[in-house]
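Human: I would love a firmer grasp of how sequence relates to backbone shape in proteins. Could you go through the record with me and say what the backbone is doing? Here is the record:
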Amino acid sequence: MSRFLVFGTAGLALLLAAGGLLYSFGPDERRARAASAPPDTTDTSGVYSQRAPSRNGIGKVYMGREISKVMGHRGANWLERPARAEKERPDLLVDSLPLGPSDTVADIGAGTGYLSFRVAPRVPQGNILAVDIQPEMLNMMRERIDERGVDNVTPIRGTVTDPQLPADSVDLAYMVDAYHEFSHPYEMMTALMEDLTPGGRVVLVEYPREDPSIPIKTLHKMTEAQAKKEMRAVGLEWVETKDMLPRQHFMVFRKPVE
């Protein structure tokens, strides 16, 4: 089946959360970020509702949650900030991913490839399908692939509704600080379900909305209960939630084995 994606981050909607999570941008930067986001399409499925947008949201509501604004490619430096290694412990995140050496792994909302390049050595006989919707992010990723001589990271441009991956091909898909920005979460996750192998895993990493002490804007956080509800809506089964990360939920879901 042929489809095309998104998750990226251009709207990862899919975009890995970056820049504007902790800091406010000036008017010029806000306009630039808005211009870089893909246009929303009219939804007729009845899955979503609309209301006046809050300051950091788009006014589109899914299962009671207002979808946040996305971060554009101009926030790429925030994704690569040195403090991220200490504050978010991506090493622990990668160590906790359920990986096999020959797995096909989808990094949805891969951005610059910050995590893709860290996961790649864990699947030496496998492949990282690094999905993003922003061509600028993908270009940065390609430059890093050439610089580092990595041969198992494949940049893929998706759409806001589909990661554009082969059906029944993905052993593990992970989304780090990105899912809450998907403009079409139901469509995206429904498409991803078709791409997963039977028993394939989805790892969702999000800042906890339950913890007001985490200095992240509210719409860029998710409660564990909300995440479970939205994953269940597309047929994913919750497996476990790990608490080894200092500031983020690490939630594991699975496609049922039929």
